[in-house]
Amino acid sequence: xxxxxxxxxxxxxxxxxxxxxxxxxxxxxxxxxxxxxxxxxxxxxxxxxxxxxxxxxxxxxxxxxxxxxxxxxxxxxxxxxxxxxxxxxxxxxxxxxxxxxxxxxxxxxxxxxxxxxxxxxxxxxxxxxxxxxxxxxxxxxxxxxxxxxxxxxxxxxxxxxxxxxxxxxxxxxxxxxxxxxxxxxxxxxxxxxxxxxxxxxxxxxxxxxxxxxxxxxxxxxxxxxxxxxxxxxxxxxxxxxxxxxxxxxxxxxxxxxxxxxxxxxxxxxxxxxxxxxxxxxxxxxxxxxxxxxxxxxxxxxxxxxxxxxxxxxxxxxxxxxxxxxxxxxxxxxxxxxxxxxxxxxxxxxxxxxxxxxxxxxxxxxxxxxxxxxxxxxxxxxxxxxxxxxxxxxx
Length: 394
Hints:
six-stranded mixed β-sheet, globular, 394 residues, alpha/beta
């Protein structure tokens, strides 16, 4: 079974002396549960793994019960240390307060129980961690699958990765695109919106949120004003509501509205957003286009290629500590600008089917970036670029 790079990180951390709760965070269907299963199969530490999936949300006392069970099992095993893994922990009301209470009690009483928490809702995990567990946890981030991971695990070539994206659960279905598209919509998109977002955030217009997501995905790689989006959505909402919903979709690692790069923050955040999916499977599933149609249409393929590059940059942004922007002035543009510690890197994507412009040259004159890169035709080959960490570009 394929092991993601986070395997070694998690295994190493749980074998260290007890210090912090380990939290595995990431969007749906990226292999969080598989990762912990692989680690538990190999660790020498006595452990128990439980899931809150079928526990009533109001049963906050359940966390105390299973924690006490772990303490008793540690005693019976005469183990110097014990590992407790709780999956879907966010489904319990006030879970973070309950976890804090048990963790602090063990710390005070010198009980060597280590803990790993994970769940299918990135938003709910984030909310609980920031509210109650500050200073008590470390994150292990699991972004969407990269091209090298999909290639090694499934033999996916670069063109099919660009179209079908990086959801491992759907790769065996790509031979039947209708079935694959239903899987992405029913098993990934619907739960992400219905459970991860609508059950976490106060969303006064849930239908507007759903339609914003669907329409925003189909615009991936394009700039579109929120006012124009509002008109296409034909809803009585306002731009502020739309902007807040877009921020929530970004926090869920589904869809992002990139800001235009500028020297001051006011210009950045008041700019027209450029839509960008975190996984091109979302664009492909909602666009309705087949692989053959996109691949043979130069304009469409150029947008898919740009979206694949954007997804690659976005998925590593947290871990590598940079921000992703775009830049445009009149007819000249730079597809992506990475910003870190007051320096920037400009990236232009050329699929071999897109028209060129003077964006890189003009951007260099205005902002003096640390580096500039062409990805694709005449520059770094696309397959090579999607195989390196963007951190190496900074």
